[in-house]
Write a structure and sequence with these properties.
This protein has strands at residues 4-7, 10-13, 18-24, 32-39, 45-51, 58-60, 68-73, 78-83, 92-100, 115-116, 120-125. The N and C termini lie far apart (39 Å). The chain contains no helices and eleven strands. The strands form two sheets. Strands 2, 4, 5, 6, 9, 10 and 11 form a seven-stranded mixed β-sheet that branches.
């Protein structure tokens, strides 16, 4: 398994932006597919965005398409989530997740991932 540490959360007004980062331990970062999930209070954890090991394949939840962008820097063992045009509904704890990449695809199912970060809080005020 890989160790993941998220950062970049905070309080922002609606319409604002944040960039989340997730740094992974290990020497084979490019061999992992990565994902971002979020969990609002009292709700289940949901997929936000995913990226393949190479970074060539990405996918997004419908609720964040055109507003959020996932990217990765394999030289820095880091995956990012750029979040623009934030809405109060985006308020949640955001989690980074990783799994070994056996294909060139990203993964959208929570149960596909074996490693999780501790989460970072994002709060969007109206």
């Amino acid at each position: 398994q890989v160790q993941l540490v998220e950062s970049g959360g905070g309080l922002v007004q609606a319409g604002g932006f944040l960039r989340l980062s997730c740094v992974a331990s290990g020497r084979t970062f490019s061999g992992y597919a990565l994902g971002w999930f979020r969990q609002a209070p009292g709700k289940e954890r949901l997929f936000v965005a995913g990226i393949s090991g190479s970074g060539l394949s990405t996918g997004y939840a419908d609720s964040v398409k055109s507003r959020f962008t996932i990217s990765r820097d394999n030289a820095r063992n880091t995956v990012y989530l750029q979040m623009n045009s934030l809405k109060p509904d985006d308020t949640a704890v955001y989690y980074c997740a990783a799994r070994e990449a056996y294909s060139g695809d990203y993964y959208a199912r929570e149960e596909s991932y074996g490693s999780w970060g501790q989460g970072t809080q994002v709060t969007v005020s109206s």
